């Protein structure tokens, strides 16, 4: 959120519905195409494909290393803060007009193979995570989601080959 807020010249509180798709790796994909900034489509506000591809996506994908570099210490505090935020949303629910992202077992939504644990845009309703349905995924986004799916399938195959599942 902070990267997007800085680029747009707004507070992180002005951004809603930034989605993170995929694996917790360099293939994770921060999707601004359904996010809003002060109620306007984030992609229209930013309107800079080169920044999106060359700065924003790679920086988010490598955020753990960036946090360590910036703090000179472990990124554990950032991960702990994210866990607290997710537990809050899980217990209290997400507002009806917004969502967060969380790694859950895929139900096959958006072409993600069923059973794969991956990050989706989700809402919490009654203590249950629900994948946000009906989002139109453009070709740019789908290619990144597919790359993360392929990586997750490779990881699962490696674990199966080791006899761990």
CATH class type: Alpha Beta
- Number of helices, where a helix is a run of at least 4 consecutive DSSP H or I residues: 6
Structural class: alpha+beta
Mean pLDDT: 92
- CATH homologous superfamily classification: Lactate dehydrogenase/glycoside hydrolase, family 4, C-terminal
- Please state the CA-atom Rg, rounded to the nearest Å: 16 Å
CATH architecture: Alpha-Beta Complex
| Number of beta-strand segments | 8
- Classify the helix fraction into a percent range: 40-55%
Stated plainly, the CATH topology is called: L-2-Hydroxyisocaproate Dehydrogenase, Chain A, domain 2
The domain count comes to 1
* SSE order, one letter for each helix or strand: HEEEEEHHHHEEEH
Topology of this structure?
Layout: H1 2-8, E1 15-16, E2 19-21, E3 29-31, E4 36-37, E5 40-41, H2 42-46, H3 49-61, H4 63-71, H5 76-92, E6 100-105, E7 117-125, E8 128-131, H6 139-161
Antiparallel strand pairs: 1-4, 2-3, 4-5, 6-7, 7-8
């Amino acid at each position: 959120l902070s990267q997007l807020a800085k680029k747009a010249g707004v507070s992180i509180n002005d951004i809603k519905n930034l989605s993170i798709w995929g694996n917790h790796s360099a293939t994770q994909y921060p999707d601004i195409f359904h996010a809003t900034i002060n109620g306007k489509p984030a992609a229209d506000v930013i309107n800079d494909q080169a920044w999106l591809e060359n700065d924003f996506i790679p920086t988010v994908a490598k955020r753990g290393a960036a946090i360590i570099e910036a703090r000179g210490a472990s990124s554990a505090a950032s991960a702990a803060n994210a866990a607290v935020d997710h537990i809050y949303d899980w217990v209290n629910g997400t507002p009806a007009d917004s969502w967060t992202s969380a790694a859950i077992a895929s139900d096959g939504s958006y072409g993600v193979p069923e059973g794969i644990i991956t990050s989706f845009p989700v809402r919490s309703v009654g203590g249950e995570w629900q994948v946000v349905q009906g989002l139109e995924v453009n070709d740019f986004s789908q290619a990144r989601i597919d790359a993360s799916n392929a990586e997750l399938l490779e990881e699962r195959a490696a674990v199966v080959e080791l006899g761990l599942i």
